[in-house]
Amino acid sequence: MGRALAGLLALLLAAGALGASPATSIGASKPAAKHGCKKPKHKRSRQHRKKRCRKKSGGTTPSGDKPGSTDEPGDQTGPPGRLLATELEISPTELRLQLSRASVAAGPTIVQQYNSGADPHNLILERQGTVAFSYPTLDPGLSQSQTVNLARGTWTLYCGLLDHRALGMQATLTVN
What are the beta bridge partners of residue 55? Predict the structure, then answer.
């Protein structure tokens, strides 16, 4: 009787009836590599590339890099980021530089300057006290754009004409 019970127990274990998964039973093949999501059917879909899936699995981005592993601007794939810097004249003694967003991703970014004021303005991009890029002077009502390769860090954008920066025509941009 003891031998029959042991045989039945081994049979039930092999069939997974006692809670053991088939992958852990004797002679079973190894399961497919886990990618961290509960729904492996969407492995190649957009859903899989969402932050929660990458975070669980430590997965990779579509380009094959670990998320957030790029240190150099320009080594990312995909379209460039966009930023609009609008120059405003609130009053003769108060000027403002308004950014369309407070932060952008590192890498190529299309930075558009729009002069909505009555006086000419320029746009200077500075990082760590060093001028990285300078737009030429722009007449009122016009706009211009350039693709600029932005590195991670804090950037200061301002108008360098006369005392415009001191009157408030400056803004801070965070590049992640």
Answer: none
